[in-house]
Amino acid sequence: MKVLANVELCVSCGKCERICPNNGIYVIDGIPIKCMHCEKSPCLNVCPEEAIERINGKVVLNKDKCVGCGLCMTVCPIGAIRFSLDVASKCNGCYDREEELCKLVCPTNALDELEHTIDNKQQNVISKFKKIYSYI
Where does the record place the 4Fe-4S ferredoxin-type domain (predicted)? Predict the structure, then answer.
């Protein structure tokens, strides 16, 4: 499951930013910005050094392979990749842990596995459309 941000619950406390070992999340005006581990992963596909790979369903950056070209930052659709000392920095989804650290420390549960909630809402809408179309 992906950890997604519910901006309505974020109080900009900064706990997620401080706990992240990769400096991979930051909050701007109450909006937590972190890698969404996109299915198509434009950053992974554009990296000329193959410094970005998918591990355990997460898009992970290997800083030792990064040459600092900036292509990944350019193609990231949500601006979740930053540069520090000419090396890319991004959320790795805590691919080597049971749960993402940012989710564990968030006092309002603004960072949570909302994917399940979104899927349920989509299924609800689909079932309503099916019901409507069954009358036509």
Answer: 1-30, 57-86
Rg, the chain, Cα only: 17
Can you give the residue ranges of every domain in the chain?
4-134
C-alpha closest to that of 90 among 15, 11, 26, 18: 26
Return the DSSP state at 126: H
Q: Which pLDDT does position 29 carry in this prediction?
A: 87
CATH of 4-134, one of 3.30.70.20, 3.30.43.10, 3.40.50.300, 3.20.20.70: 3.30.70.20
CA distance 51 to 72: 10
Encode pLDDT of 43-83 as tens digits: 999 999 999 999 999 999 999 999 999 999 999 999 999 98
Task: Return d(Cα 52, Cα 104) in angstroms, integer.
Answer: 25
DSSP 8-state code for residue 115? H
Q: What is the pLDDT of residue 19?
A: 96
